[in-house]
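haha ok so turns out i had the wrong file open the whole time. this is the CORRECT one, sorry everyone. sequence first:
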Amino acid sequence: MGAKIEVDSLCKRFSSPASDKPDLLVLDSVSFAVNTGEFFAVIGPSGCGKTTLINILAGFVPYNAGTVLVDGERVNGPGKDRVVVFQEFALFEWKTVLDNVAFGLKAKGLSKVECKRIAQRYLEMVHLADVSDCYPYELSGGMKQRLALARALAVDPQCILMDEPLGALDYQLRLLMQEELLSLWQDTGKTIVFVTHDVEEAVYLADRIMMLTALPGRVQEIVTTDLARPRVSQLRTSPRCQELKQYLWDHLARPPLSRLDIIGNKPLAGKYTRYSV
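then structure:
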């Protein structure tokens, strides 16, 4: 598998409206690559630039320096190869469930019949076919999030960029949605970049986890989650899983690595792939 997304020396500053105040450096020298078909998680302290990074990958926000490539092409704006799923569902409340999913398909110029066929297929995939004639305000939080996923998948993007999409759900519903998301990812083979504040969620879902430092966001480390799938039974019982979660918590707010770190005087070399900045 080759790299689907390549980011090199990315920097982003936001200008202050007050002329006497310096620009705010949000992301500094961020470099990483996401493989085709990979589930890649991004974690870091609040305000470290995770959402800004997603918006840059989506093409919504310009950057000041560095390079951002998708399939070798420079990102200069939004593209059909990328969709974003936000924490806020961003659904059209005045459109039916079916029409919400079909909206992006119509924008691609497909016929009404084809739009309906594809929309129904993805509603079946997320178990919402029975409510296709309902409106978003009639759905539960979990159903709305599944609808947002169906709408994203229906336009057949290469990359799905997710900014804390499960953050607003209660704990039990969040666990169920994590399973749904994994199932959809495994069925479709899409490349996913997933921002979360939840270390356990990152360990459960991701192939690799990138930790950003506190503002300005820099790549502290990229950790490979070498736990076999499915992982649900390992979250509470696997010593390896507990060790990885503790490692992430312990190092999340620390400066970038400059030496071999240890857990309980036990070297981690060979267990996790990581990169220092």
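Residues 256-277 have pLDDT under 50 and may be disordered.
again sry for the mixup
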